[in-house]
Design brief:
By secondary structure, this protein is α+β, with helices and mostly antiparallel strands. Helices cover 50% and strands 13% of the residues. The protein is built from seven helices and five strands, in the order αβαααββββααα. The strands form two sheets. A three-stranded antiparallel β-sheet has the order 1-3-2. It has a two-stranded antiparallel ribbon with strand order 4-5. α3 crosses α4, α3 runs antiparallel to α5 and α6 crosses α7.
């Protein structure tokens, strides 16, 4: 496995070269060879755990993220829903897409960063898919909290992109960090009054 950001960057550059060779075409300059996903539980929850429990929670959240990543790669360009993909198949594809996982224990809430390749395979030909990191994917990430709660961890539910209206999504994007879209909306109402 890789141990530095430089190694991950070199991996991504090699992967783009491999795709160019496989397709016989140069990969677009704006191709996205790598995505990063962070699964960060609330500090109040994870600080109550021992170091061993924190590590177990981080590993479990990586597995759940890999299931979402794999399911999105497998459903991209189809009409299938993420939930229609077998979890074991999605986990296998998500692990294959994962380049590196970095665990951060130097912050208030230890958490993993998952670096993965947004690559689909059509008839054995690889293709980078920048748009794979979309609202469907983000909605899938919200399900990680549900799965972690099922595993016995106290995860707070995140914003559900799948059920939100366009107005709610915009409010959520505009909300300051650490504040929910509902809290932000109330703050704006208070400012107007």
């Amino acid at each position: 496995g890789y141990t530095s950001g430089q190694e991950v960057i070199e991996h991504a550059q090699r992967r783009l070269e491999e795709i160019s060779k496989a397709t016989g075409k140069k990969v677009r300059k704006d191709a996205v060879p790598l995505c990063a996903t962070i699964v960060k539980p609330s500090a109040a929850v994870i600080q109550k755990l021992t170091r061993e429990e924190q590590i177990a929670m981080c590993r479990a959240s990586v597995e759940e993220a890999q299931i979402v990543i794999g399911a999105r790669i497998l459903t991209y360009g189809t009409k299938k829903k993420l939930s229609e993909i077998d979890r074991a198949e999605a986990l296998e594809r998500g692990k294959k897409a994962t380049v590196m996982v970095a665990y951060h224990f130097d912050e208030g809430a230890p958490h993993p960063h998952i670096f993965w390749e947004p690559i689909t395979w059509n008839d054995g030909v690889p293709k980078t898919e920048a748009k794979i990191h979309d609202s469907i994917f983000l909605g899938g990430l919200n399900k990680i909290a549900v799965r972690m709660n099922e595993r016995g961890y106290d995860f707070k539910l995140a914003f559900d992109y799948e059920k939100a209206t366009e107005e709610q999504i915009q409010e959520h994007k505009n909300a300051p960090k650490g504040m929910s879209s509902l809290e932000y909306k109330q703050l704006k109402r208070d400012e107007l009054n």
